[in-house]
Design brief:
Elements lengths: L1 E5 L3 H12 L3 E5 L11 E4 L4 E4 L5 E2 L3 H9 L6 E2 L6 E5 L5 E4 L22 H5 L22 H15 L8 H10 L10 E4 L3 H15 L4 E2 L4 E6 L4 E6 L2 E4 L5 E4 L3 H7 L13 E5 L10 E5 L5 E4 L4 E5 L10 H15 L1
Parallel strand pairs: 1-2, 1-14, 2-10, 7-16
Antiparallel strand pairs: 3-4, 5-9, 6-9, 7-8, 11-12, 12-13, 15-18, 16-17, 17-18
Helix pairs in contact: 1-6
Length: 341
């Protein structure tokens, strides 16, 4: 079977490599000059370093990521502590602590003061339990009370990073999936992992090579202009470099941003509201003994990443910052990174 995959971002690469592994004949088309979409790395002349297009944090128990990296031969390109460990600092009072969940699903760590959420009691953890069975169509704040030490010091930063918006306004069913796939399975399922040596080297370049080895090279600078249909099925693809017939029995995968999918398929319901993420990269030496990842509370910056050659900071749900001058954001990020360090 032949399948046309339109878009070579991470979704398109995942679909294309899975199809190639299953024996399909795959044709991959990408409008940009490189594969990877938002999941890419590039050289930044301002700091003279290769940086990632955003800091990407992966949890050890994510089955889709593990399967994808294993397929493309990049299973060794995620680094992080052997055990789940999350360092936090609260800029409101200067408090620092480290969460150290035990590996198994029975969470005895919550009863250990040197491993648990500071100031939390059993009732505070149990108050988060309804998320595990949250119904569809509800917001997080309609399912649980978004307050208390476990919410403030664990769930709020965790869900903000995952949902990329104020978590109390997020979809409870998405939070439910995160809780079930990570927190409920124990620390072995949510040890933090960072792509190494770069995002592209871990997720993109091995996938492109995999597709080349399976006679499915990614064709760049090839924008899909429109779909030809017979009212039911796609019969043709009009690309910027020509038209391609889609024969009966062939497949088409649209791995494109929602607004592009909406233009290609009028009447398709797609998301129309989005939140940005702001990342700052600084050519600063990390403090001696600094953890690779630090969560920050009561701060504009929420996560600080320490690499060998730079410090990076991340702000999720960052639409409020999109019109701020770059220089102002850089000063803010530098000050917060030094304060947390």
């Amino acid at each position: 079977m032949r399948v046309h995959v339109v878009g070579a971002g991470l979704a398109g690469l995942g679909a294309a490599t899975a199809l190639a592994e299953a024996g399909a004949t795959v044709e991959v088309s990408e409008a940009a000059a490189q594969a990877g979409g938002r999941c890419r790395s590039y050289f930044d002349p301002q700091i003279g370093l290769t940086i990632d297009n955003g800091n990407h944090l992966v949890l050890s128990g994510n089955p889709a990521v593990v399967e994808y990296l294993g397929r493309i031969g990049a299973g060794d390109r995620l680094v992080g502590p052997q055990e789940a460990e999350f360092v936090f600092v609260d800029l409101a009072d200067g408090a620092r602590w480290t969460l150290r969940p035990n590996r198994g699903p029975l969470p005895w760590w919550i009863f250990r003061g040197d491993r648990a959420v500071p100031g939390a009691r059993l009732a505070d953890y149990l108050a988060m339990a309804p998320l595990a069975t949250a119904p569809a169509g509800r917001r997080v704040d309609e399912v649980i009370r978004c307050a208390g030490p476990v919410w403030d010091k664990l769930m709020q930063p965790f869900l903000l990073a995952a949902l990329n918006l104020a978590p109390e306004r997020g979809a409870a069913e998405l939070a439910r999936a995160l809780v079930r796939e990570t927190l409920m399975k124990g620390g072995a399922a949510y040890a933090p992992r960072i792509p190494a040596p770069s995002l592209a080297a871990a997720f993109v370049e091995p996938a492109v090579r995999y597709l080349e080895d399976h006679a499915a090279p990614v064709r760049l600078h090839r924008r899909l202009l429109r779909l030809e249909t017979d009212g039911v099925c796609v019969t043709g693809l009009a690309f910027s470099d020509g038209e391609v017939e889609v024969a009966p029995g062939e497949g088409v995968v649209l791995a494109v941003p929602p607004w592009i999918a909406g233009d290609l398929l009028p009447g398709l319901t797609v998301p129309d509201a989005f939140e940005g993420i702001v990342n700052g990269h600084f050519r600063l030496p990390a403090p001696a003994g600094a953890p690779p990842i630090t969560g920050v509370l009561h701060s504009t910056v929420e996560w600080i990443f320490c690499f060998e050659d730079r410090i990076s900071v991340t702000v999720s749900g960052a639409n409020r910052l999109m019109n701020e001058p770059r220089e102002a954001l850089a000063r803010l990020g530098t000050a917060l990174a030094k304060a947390a360090g």
